[in-house]
Write a structure and sequence with these properties.
The complex is a heterotrimer of chains A (254), B (322) and C (238). Chain A has 254 residues and is of the alpha+beta class. Chain A is built from 5 helices and 15 strands. The longest helix of chain A is centred in the C-terminal third of the chain and has 14 residues. Chain A starts with 10 loop residues before the first strand and ends with a helix. Chain C has 238 residues and is an alpha+beta fold. Chain C has a single domain, classed as 2-Layer Sandwich (Ribosomal Protein S5, domain 2). Chain C contains 4 helices and 9 strands, in the order E-E-E-E-H-E-H-E-E-H-E-E-H. The longest helix of chain C is centred in the last third of the chain and has 33 residues. Classes of the chains: A alpha+beta (254), B alpha+beta (322), C alpha+beta (238). Chains in contact: A-B, A-C, B-C. Chain B: Keywords: Cytoplasm, RNA-binding.
């Protein structure tokens, strides 16, 4: 998944034809950032255009060719199956209203989407609480729906409220979406969190792909230290990460 | 009504417990530490100033652009010898999404309140000499208009804006006007042809905002009001927007470096021991002195850059130096 | 020359500071946001453009006209059907205009037109980079040019004219704003053309030719700038 910047064709701008279109390669699944023109009603010979500036990526999953454009942004748009950290903003008789990005459309978290939900057994969350959940359903004309359990098994599966236990301190960090995705899905190559643990920083972490990282450690200075490291590492090259970790650990812990 | 910025409980708790330990989220190590000040003066114009507050890491957190325009108008009938001065500041969607476009600033909104605070700080304390703006009594006066554009907003607006206003006022040059027989003969709009005239800034008031964080819930505080228990509240200077949202009260003090209080305001919030006000004003004084010298330094540097070749044209020579 | 800074406002999704030889604007784009009820469109996104002048209370009629031109042009660039019932907010703050200083508008009635055209041109280009920065889905790229024809029938690119005096001494006969749509690195359409003054049809052809050449040249810079930006976005990658 490394990104090559050397070749010009890797960078794609809105309105550019996709590489696969030029090579007549068949694509089965279109990912984000791709637009299919509708010049032809039967979707025959219609052009595939890019809509965002980013890097073209091709993958083959099973027998399907997948194409998407990888780009980084600040604002999250809900996608089915994503793990997010939502903030409860309001509660009604059947659902919580949650926000997954400041000033974006709100989403719903129905009480029925909790494990062992009954009419009487309703989760007691307050406004402003952070909840780790998954986007269950996107509907065309209604707000997106979240769930706090694995809907196939009905297990809790680590979803639920993000709360520091007594004596522990938590914080939440806002950062760019691609950085969160990298931390969450590419932990084999992107070793930032592992490096932190190696530096004797023990912490709990929850990463939502909506650009929120929740961390919890046993002391306030440690939480601040982890917060600062994660914040600073977003803006620098990977080779400098070790230096940053060392600097902040020295500053806060010793 | 635009949506408010959301602050979740984790953030709230984290920021408040950091404050209780004399730490700040942006890396400052004390409640009374201010952010670094950066004043940039546009070298191609007069009175065109960018002021920003930088976090210890060096990223911009609050940025204000201030620009002065002057116009010749007829004075008010009641004050024929005085020019006019107006501060225009609208915070809109560019500053942050919590601010609404197309909303007229009024005294209810915080930005409207701060703008009026600034304007009265400059006008009522006579920091700007309005009589100097008179060209022909009762006929023509200068109208000085100060436009404040808030480009980035992360707290510290009042400090940033007052610094920008005063730097801009000190730096601005209005065109020289030649008057003959009670008539305007010529306005030297080209400042290269004839140097402009500085505005009469008599002293430099700087506003400082203190945010008060109370440790105990209000009900308990009222119960305790009989046995005075000072030092229970935390006072922080130059708060970020998130800290401001969590604070329980604020005190605004405008001072100049002559140790004079120009304006003082405590718009509601938690009750405060009265002696605390004096304490706060004293606390603000070194800050104001520091800021004033920074402003003067920035103007001096700009001045020397502009007059780089002035010595070549100067009639002065070292003959008299002995 | 033109200097461009992207991602300058951290509070907004995308932003850009665009400085030409004679003007400076800062723009921000956010979206998709939750719109107010009256802005909500059932099948496409609402686009709100807001321009604040460099001085005075705004937006006045001068800015509202610019807002309308921008909104209609953006309507056909943004993939609005991707964000139904949502809002894309575009904000611009004009920081400096060559005609800001005292008395500069008085000499020539054409000055007022030139001044607003300069702002519009800068806004167009700056907003494009803000849209890219905010990652709003776009159908294509665009680039805006501003040319003037003086009384000696010379075609002059205004963004390169530096001082106010030389701007005023140009004795404009007509002024043309041309926004080109760019697909596949090639100019495909004229998105907007706004001309003021007296001119002949061959003048237009001349201006279009000059603008096309300029667009191809300038867009190379913009492309490399966007490349830089994408690189910066993934700075923590290998």
């Amino acid at each position: 998944m490394s990104i090559e910047f050397e070749e010009q064709q890797n960078l794609i701008l809105p309105g550019d034809l996709l590489e696969c279109e030029k090579n007549n390669k068949i694509i089965h699944i279109l990912g984000q950032g791709i637009y299919l023109t509708y010049d032809n009603m039967l979707y025959h010979n219609n052009k595939l255009l890019a809509t965002n500036a980013g890097i073209e990526q091709y993958k083959t999953i099973g027998s399907n060719n997948v194409c998407n454009i990888e780009y980084n942004s600040k604002r999250y748009i809900p996608q089915q199956g994503d793990y997010v950290i939502a903030t409860v903003t309001n509660s009604y008789s059947t659902h919580f209203v949650c926000s997954i990005a400041n000033f974006s459309n709100t989403v719903h978290l129905p009480y029925a989407n909790f494990p062992q939900a009954t009419k009487k057994n309703r989760p007691k969350y307050e406004n402003g609480d952070l909840v780790y959940c998954r986007v269950k359903l996107l509907r065309k004309n209604l707000p997106a729906e979240l769930e706090c359990m694995d809907s196939e098994t009905g297990n809790k599966d680590g979803f639920g409220i993000l709360e520091a236990e007594a004596g522990r301190h938590s914080a939440v960090l806002n950062c760019s979406l691609a950085y969160c995705r990298e931390l969450l899905f590419n932990d084999k190559e992107f070793l930032l969190l592992t490096k932190l643990v190696k530096n004797n920083l023990g912490f709990e972490v929850a990463i939502g792909v909506n650009g929120k990282i929740w961390i919890c450690t046993k002391s306030l200075t440690e939480t601040l230290c982890v917060y600062k490291i994660l914040e600073a590492c977003e803006k620098v090259n990977r080779s400098e990460h070790d230096g940053i970790i060392e600097k902040f650990v020295k500053e806060f812990i010793k | 009504m635009a949506k408010e910025l959301e602050l979740n409980n984790t953030e709230k708790k984290f920021i408040l417990s950091l404050l209780a330990q004399n730490q700040r989220l942006d890396g400052r190590k004390s409640l009374i530490e201010t952010r670094n000040l950066d004043i940039k003066i546009n070298p191609d114009a007069y009175g065109d100033v960018y002021v920003s507050l930088l976090t210890p890491e060096g990223s911009v957190s609050t940025r204000v652009h201030c620009k002065i325009t002057a116009d010749i108008v007829k004075p008010k009938d009641k004050r024929p010898f005085e020019g006019s001065f107006y501060v225009n500041c609208e915070i809109n969607g560019l500053t942050g999404l919590q601010f609404e476009n197309y909303s007229k600033p009024n005294s209810m909104s915080s930005e409207g309140y701060y703008t009026r605070f600034l304007e009265s700080m400059i006008l009522r304390s006579n920091a700007l000499d309005l009589e100097q703006l008179c060209i022909i009594a009762g006929e023509k006066v200068w109208d000085i208009r100060l436009d404040l554009h808030v480009l980035e907003y992360d707290g510290g607006f009042l400090e940033c804006a007052s610094i920008a206003c005063l730097t801009s006022l000190l730096h601005f040059k209005r065109p020289y006007v030649e008057v003959q027989n009670e008539k305007i003969h010529k306005v030297y709009t080209d400042l290269d042809e004839r140097d402009g005239v500085n505005l009469g800034v008599l002293h430099i008031p700087i506003a400082v905002k203190f945010n008060i964080f109370q440790q105990l819930p209000t009900e308990e505080l009222i119960k305790q009001s009989n046995n005075t228990n000072p030092g229970k509240e935390l006072v922080a200077i130059d708060c970020t927007i998130k800290e401001e949202m969590l604070s329980n009260g604020e005190v605004l003090v405008a001072l100049n470096k002559n140790r004079e209080i120009v304006q003082l305001d405590k718009p509601g919030g938690v009750p405060l021991q009265s002696y605390k006000l004096l304490e706060l004003a004293n606390m603000a004084l070194p800050m104001v002195e520091n800021i004033t010298s920074k402003i003067l330094k920035a103007i001096e540097i700009d001045e020397s850059k502009r007059n780089e070749y002035a010595y070549l044209l100067s009639a002065e020579n070292d003959r008299y130096d002995g | 020359m033109v200097s461009i800074k992207y991602s300058v406002l951290k509070n907004l999704d995308g932003s850009c500071e665009y400085t030409t030889a004679n003007s400076k604007v800062i723009t921000g784009v956010s979206g998709p946001l939750e719109p107010k009820q009256r802005h909500r469109l059932p099948l496409q996104s609402a686009i709100e453009v807001f321009i604040k002048p460099s001085h005075g209370v705004g937006p006045s009629t001068r800015e509202v006209l610019m807002q309308d031109k921008l909104a209609t042009a953006l309507q056909s660039i943004i993939v609005t059907e991707k964000y139904p019932r949502e809002l894309i907010q575009v904000n611009a703050q004009i920081l400096s205009n060559p005609f800001d200083s005292f008395g500069s508008l008085q000499n020539d009635p054409f000055n007022e037109i030139v001044s607003s055209m300069i702002d519009l041109n800068s806004c167009f280009n700056s907003i494009f980079l803000s849209l890219i920065d905010a990652n709003i889905a776009l159908k294509s790229c665009y680039f805006s040019n501003l040319f003037t024809i003086n009384d000696k029938n010379q075609v002059i690119n205004i963004t390169n004219v530096e001082s106010l005096e030389s701007l005023q001494s140009l004795s404009h006969k007509s002024i043309h704003l041309l926004v080109f749509e760019i697909e596949e690195n090639k100019i495909s359409n004229i998105l907007l053309m706004d001309s003021k003054g007296t001119f002949h049809d061959d003048d237009i052809i001349k201006v279009i030719d000059a603008a096309q050449a300029n667009t191809e040249l300038e867009f190379k810079n913009i492309r490399s700038l966007i490349k830089e930006k994408v690189k910066d976005d993934y700075i923590w990658k290998v």
